[in-house]
Amino acid sequence: MPTLGNPKNTIGIIQKYNFMFQKKFGQNFLIDTHVLDKIIRAAEVTKEDCVLEIGPGIGTMTQYLAENAGHVVAVEIDENLIPILQETLADYDNVTVLQADILHVDIGALAREYGGGRPLKVVANLPYYITTPIIMSLLEGKAPVDNITVMVQKEVADRMQTGPGSKDYGALSLAVQYYAEPYIVANVPPNCFLPRPAVGSAVIRLKKWPRPAVEVQNPELMFKLIRASFNQRRKTLLNGLGNAAELPFSKEEIALAIAECGLEPSVRGETLTLKEFAALADVLAGHEEAS
Fold first, then answer.
1. Please, is 24 exposed, middle or buried when counting C-beta atoms within 10 Å of its C-beta (0-12, 13-18, 19+)?
2. What are the tens digits of pLDDT across the range 127-164?
3. Nearest 5 degrees, angle CA 11-CA 98-CA 181?
């Protein structure tokens, strides 16, 4: 089977099967071999690894992964792509294709069955409409994952990697950085895809921390504080948290906690680091226990 990184071969297989791109699945197939090489290198795929690929499409990246990995489990939601994958991956005996929605797949079971229980490396060209739920389910889940190397919308990659004070900094930045170290590998223009998306893309690598980046007594409370503080970006942290219905604290308690953390009363949520949010959550958790 000819390699699909070549646009001519990609067009040929699409025409052969009269494949119709499904907007609901956000399908844009990669047609640039340089980008494919960068993804493989960034994920540090070796013959020792079991790789989970999400959304293999017609198998373009799957072929590259199969050449480099011990085993590849490719999970594809679109049943119309399964016959194409059976053809494009016929030469590889180390690939398993599953037709399923990744959000309903037991990734731990895949690691046990195909990876001998070792942490999986995840590689994906993610549909933009569902990027965040997929990444967060991989980071928050109990399944063993070593790193996640994904193609996402450029602005989403920027939000994952950025720090306090930036306009892109928000709840997603903090959630990702709590679980993993983000690194943008490459920016990818629209002409590297078929069909061309309307926006630029980026490959980002998320290397999971052995344990979360900060210690916090109650992570759930910390993320409630983070969401509340970014829901009303223009407000001070005190007003943002004081107006949040999901938080059980009075404005006085919040003001005291902010002061106890050594922060100014007028501080805004978007200037706080992950460590500062953790400290604030610990202080408020102490107030909750005392009351």
1. exposed
2. 888 899 999 999 998 889 999 999 999 999 999 999 99
3. 85
Q: What's the chain's average pLDDT?
A: 93
Does 3.40.50.150 match the CATH number of domain 7-208? yes
Q: Provide CATH 1.10.8.100 ranges for the chain.
A: 219-290
The overall pTM is greater than 0.70: yes
User: Which residue spans of the chain are classified as CATH 3.40.50.150?
Assistant: 7-208
CA distance 216 to 235: 25
Give ∠ CA 222-227-228 in degrees, rounded to 5.
Answer: 95
Query: Residue 254 and residue 95: Cα distance in Å, rounded?
Result: 53
Per-residue pLDDT, 165? 87
Distance (Å, whole) CA 23 – CA 121: 27
Domain 219-290 is classified in which CATH homologous superfamily? rRNA adenine dimethylase, C-terminal domain (1.10.8.100)
Model pLDDT for residues 33-72, shown as the tens digit of each residue: 999 999 999 999 999 999 999 999 999 999 999 999 999 9
Instruction: Give the C-alpha distances (Å, rounded to integers) separating 20 from 192, 198, 285.
Output: 19, 18, 53
Range list of H helices, the chain:
7-16, 33-43, 60-68, 82-88, 107-115, 131-140, 154-161, 171-179, 219-231, 237-242, 251-260, 274-290
Structure tokens at 92: 């590889």
Report the Cα–Cα distance between both ends of the chain, in Å, rounded. 68
